[in-house]
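Q: What would this chain look like folded?
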Amino acid sequence: MVYTPDSSLARWKLLARADVLVGSAVSLVLIIGSWCHWLPLGLTEVFGFVTGGICVWLTVKENVWNWPLGIANDIFFVFLFLSSRLYADMTLQVVYIILGLLGWYWWLYGGEQHKELRVGTADTVTLAIVAVLVVISTVGMTVFLTHVKDSAPFWDALTTTLSLAAQYLLTRKLIENWYLWIMADLIYVPLYASKHLFLTAILYALFLCMCLAGLSQWRRTWLAQRDVALAIS
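A: My prediction, written as structure tokens:
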């Protein structure tokens, strides 16, 4: 079979449609199973799973509607982490809500002449500042969380600071956000599993896979933008 650009595009559309169908089916099963007590899962965790999965999928697609879905996801996780005594992660969700509102605005109007923001890369200064803030914040937060008897002070602090840094870079639509999300997710999966939040651990494993896909997709977008800019100049 000879693949043409049109056939390749059609294949990707079919795959995207399959993603939506599978995701919708899984979400419906989880919600109904939890609601009817057929599954040993709380509704809060299920809705966090569903909205989180959709949010990251939309982010990979560079779709601005990831922001309102993300805000809904943050609200569910505030209550979930409160019940699990993961106080830093709970507070992180509140900050996410604020950054989500900013990201929603910046993605729509943060580009040149207040137009849609385009995918970009962070400069060296920005990355250096982010790295220093992550280290300092992790140390300080670990001390505080140990004092308030958090159940996993260091890991909770580290994932919190990594996630905050990643979320900031995401609001600015910078590719490097994916590297920080990947680092955080590699810690989140075993952390949540150790707290018996197995559905949430599975969700973050899916996040990890989608982050890898997002990194690849955004790099392709950025390279295409760069080629167009070079051709124009």
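The CA atoms of residues 74 and 197 lie 16 Å apart.
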